[in-house]
Amino acid sequence: MKKILVTGGAGFIGSHVLRLFVNKYPEYHIFNLDALTYAGNLENLKDIQDAPNYTFLKADITNAEQIDELFGKHQFDRVIHLAAESHVDRSITDPMAFVKTNVMGTVNLLTAAKEHWKDINGKLFYHVSTDEVYGSLGEEGLFTETTAYDPNSPYSASKASSDHFVRSYGETYKLPYVISNCSNNYGPNHFPEKLIPLFINNIINNKSLPVYGDGNYTRDWLFVKDHAAAIDLVFHKGSNNETYNIGGFNEWKNIDLVKLLCQQMDQKLGRNEGESEKLITYVKDRPGHDLRYAIDATKLNKELGWKPSVTFEEGLSKTIDWYLENEEWLKNVTSGSYQQYYNKQYN
Ligand code: NAD
Ligand code: DAU
Fold this sequence. Notes:
The chain is an alpha/beta fold.
């Protein structure tokens, strides 16, 4: 039986990856290592928590000793590393938290893998990363796997650094690795600090929709289950020491996306057409705001046959339905320290 360590499995993308692996691969034992920060939530995993091939390990990747001990105890064969501080706005107010978790935490995991994997046969360190490492595009062009790194925010700088460390362990210590760099995800269990779930929650509560700057910033959106499917493919069929870009072929200017979201919300909530759009408020721009991200996912498509399974309209509709059906989840994650964060960020 293969022992797979997934880090950050109680978060947004990690929970979808865990569910997919636990259900699809009963022959693997999946360990979920998570510190349960504000972004980690075991409620995301309720349906698989009692599965016989699943174990939760509460641990912090910034604690090198603890990570080393867990590698010694459980003898993981492979790692899918998702644990991170993931929100750009938080990285602007507290960059060091991103250095600690994203850079030092990743190096701790790499070091533990290097020390414990004496026989590298069948071993793999999979680092789940972001398209933000490539910086910002102008009106034209796409990020490919050979685009030079040019990160602009403390978040993207920390992810770029962790990618470089992964590669360096591959070169220096021959640690088998793979990296994927993905565009903006959306879907169920997304923490309501990010654009789409934040705006869904605000529309439900008739609160203003804070659009940064003029709203003419572009992101390439991918449904989270399609990202999880791509991770499954790269994990099993990707070539060692390669990078794969993952994206939705689905660019939206923020303001157009917000208007589509408002239309769908009006319909689902039985509100008059145009009612939610009235909540749009243009606010101070994000410092260093990247103009445009867009991924060229041709390599993943041609080499491994992956493509997104849902259109944006379908994915967005499913996402809104999930939030409307999971009010309790939304209430729980927006209680406690959330209100403090919200007031500091938006008032
Ligand atoms: P998230 O913020 O929802 O979840 C992060 C998880 O990591 C949480 O469960 C949290 O408790 C855990 N964690 C944080 N610090 C930890 C620590 N020190 N030790 C152990 N666990 C810790 O993040 P997400 O959006 O699911 O992103 C997951 C990964 O995918 C990240 O590496 C992120 O950079 C990358 N990524 C995200 C997106 C996106 O659109 N969300 C796109 C591309 C890549
Ligand atoms: O591209 C991949 C990245 O996508 C991931 O690596 C990050 O972890 C993830 O958080 C996401 O980063 P973004 O900064 O693109 O996502 P966010 O949802 O924060 O913002 C999306 C766009 O919406 C961006 O242009 C900023 C804008 N925005 C965001 C918020 C939270 C607003 O206009 N208002 C807001 O309140």
